[in-house]
Amino acid sequence: MKRLIASLAAGAWLTAGLLLPGVASAATPKNTLVQAWAIDDIISLDPAEIFEFTAAEIAGNSYDRLIGYDVNDVSKVYGVIAESWEVSADGKTLSFKIRQGLRFASGNPITAEDVVFSLQRAVILDKSPAFILTQFGLSKDNAQAKIRQTGTYSFELEMDKSYAPSFVLYCMTATVASVVDKKLVMEHESDGDMGYSWLKTNYAGSGPFVIKDWRANEVVVLERNSNYWGKAPAMARAIYRHIPEPATQRLLLEKGDVDVARRLGPDEIQAVSSNSEIRVMKGVKGSIYYLGLSQKNPYLSRPQVRQALKYLVDYQTIADTILNGTVIVHQAFLPRGFLGALEKTPFSLNVAKAKALLKEAGLENGFTVTMDTRNTADITGIAQAIQQTFAQAGITLELIPGDGKQTLTKYRARNHDIYIGRWGPDYQDPHTNADTFARNPDNSDDAKSKPLAWRNAWDIPEMTRKADAAVLERDSAKRATMYLEIQEEHQQVSPFVIMFQEIEVAAMRKNVQNYVIGPSFDDNKFAGVTK
Amino acid sequence: MDPTTPTPAEERLGASSAGAILRGGVRLLVSVALTFLGLLLITFLIGRVVPVDPVLAMVGDRASAAVYEKARLELGLDRPLLEQFWMYLEKVFSGDLGTSVLTANKVVDDIARVFPATLELATLGTLIGTLFGIPLGVLAAVRRGSLSDQIVRVFGLIGYSAPIFWLGLMGLLVFYARLDWTAGPGRLDIAYDYIVTPETGLLLVDSALQGEWEVFGDAFRHIILPACLLGYYSMAYISRMTRSFMLNELSQEYIVAARVKGLSERRIIWGHALRNAAVPLVTVIALSYAGLLEGSVLTETVFAWPGLGQYITNSLQNADMNAVLGGTIVVGTVFVGLNLLSDLLYRLLDPRVRMRR
Predict the structure, then answer these.
(1) Do B135 and A200 touch (CB under 8 A)?
(2) How far is the C-alpha of A125 from the C-alpha of A14, rounded, in Å?
(3) What is the value of ipTM here, to two decimals?
């Protein structure tokens, strides 16, 4: 038996011995940027289909678009592939001139033919983000006639109405308007799919990085584009590693095995903040957290109840504690940084006022209502805090936890009472959020358009009319005023308790310089990063 | 008569044993086919009754009604449930497991990528679990009630009951972050990526076959911690069962007889008791191995290990049914395969089973 014990000890020693020589290297290569993120949301690398956070950011660093904006001041719009543009007198046609001498990563020259093909392709393929272009009256049938090449380096875009030019230009900054290499894509066309099956997992762009490899739920590898027409990135490679667990991300960052950790929770952020080797960088994002109150619920449809609930959220405490440093209190549907954003925050926890409003609604004894709650730490934390403050006014809030897709399925089918959600704008123009929070052209169950206002069964013909007018206003100052007015009304009467605007936090090693966290989810840039 | 020529009786015996083998083979095939069919049907139905809209994974939350409807039709969701299932089966029989909505790849390719990662981890975990579990179980049984028995039992109990998620994080904190003995999460450091050409998909094997010993070392440093963790979990189970089987064997009369005959204690334990305990132990080890081969989701999450468990879970959460069903086929194959293997080992280890045949 002694021999057995000795054998076990020897086995343990041998195992430890095998480990000991392997002291892990604790630094990423000098010319490589390694980011830890959760990349399981990527379902496609085709710009005509990309609509998820990670893929949009990757496209933002690997594809060029016609138009760009200054991430520090989004009102400053400039041409990227486009050299200049003009709006016709009737406001319905935009004529673009394309820069000459640009090349795709493949070496093929970029011409108006590629730009026209890219826009037509996005409309014809009609994937999720296609509405960003089709909202200008474009469709599969008319795309070729309305988006037309007028020269080797010029083309025109004809719209159905005279939209605000800023609206159109901001839409051209979206991922769906990325310019793809027509020759390369069409070489891989099969069954008339315009190269869709191929581009889903491949690359045909002209940005600072090329997408070299995507292994789902594992890694995305970008490499410096040697044919890039702008300033070449300092990093030869940029790698996203799929590290879903925040605590693991923290360990990797502290050890230096990743340069940037993108998915740290409030606890991890606080912990790494005191590490002298790590810098925490923050940037205000466009996503907002809100409660959607279904107007099909007889209690929630009373105006006084809607307003009472806005006084029953302890906004500042939640922002300071549960979401520590990752949000700011914000109570209007347009995020800060957008044209016409309303920054007023009139609501704070006021139980007495809420009780008075409930009494006015004939519900002084409170009522019971459910809330579908996504089972992530942040959403669950907010929901539990709200449950406590609702209870102070006699409202029993029953939380129904569920996976993200599960709660969303229920919300989309209008089967909820209250839904706690997060909404990020699709492009940088105010219409993106007005279109969903303040428009509901048809409130019937089988409506074609189903914005957030529809999901909450909020019938608003008058506000819809105002939002439709704002998108056509060509004077930017006037347009901003129109959105401010809509938000003032919306803030008071809507069935949306808008609570916070997201702050994106990235923790990085001290030697990582020039990393940019932009206002939109596709604006995080690392072409200028040095280490 | 030529002694090599079979007698009529031997011929009849040969024919009947060949017939028995054939019948056995057919029975086995039918039972495997029915198992798979049942497995696929249940998984398919579960996937369809979970309150998750599969179209959402494909088009996202912002798609227009027209885009949504088009995707719904593409997925065949407008057809009756059984018809959808039949369509899927037709594809499977033609060797097509479909395309994953989430990864845009053919499910076969996805599985060929993620399964070797799990296979490598589970095999190493089971090896560690078996190498330590059996001796510890024997030790505990032989020294029943002693301090070493108590230590083994408590050690096993911790492995059995401590959340593997927590153990994983603690393991990383101690052995990776503090002691620097192992590498961190993932299968390989980025510096070693793309050096080895995937052949089997098993990094340790591929790197060894290609003589890339630095890559082998790095892959080993990455795999050893999660493998030890799974090995610990597996060891806890194996040592407990070994102890129990050994206690049973050691109380048998043949052990008393062996002692009366004056056999050494070492021979009694290893040559007789363990040999008999080994028969049910084969099933225990096979089941433990099969459990690990399904993919340990939590371990894979903590260690960012791109394996089958994460793949199936992620697919299920998004109602990506092609991927879920493809993964189910793999898991089913693993279970059926390991059951057959343990059956074969039974025959090798237990002469009574051979005799019955």
Answers:
(1) no
(2) 59
(3) 0.76
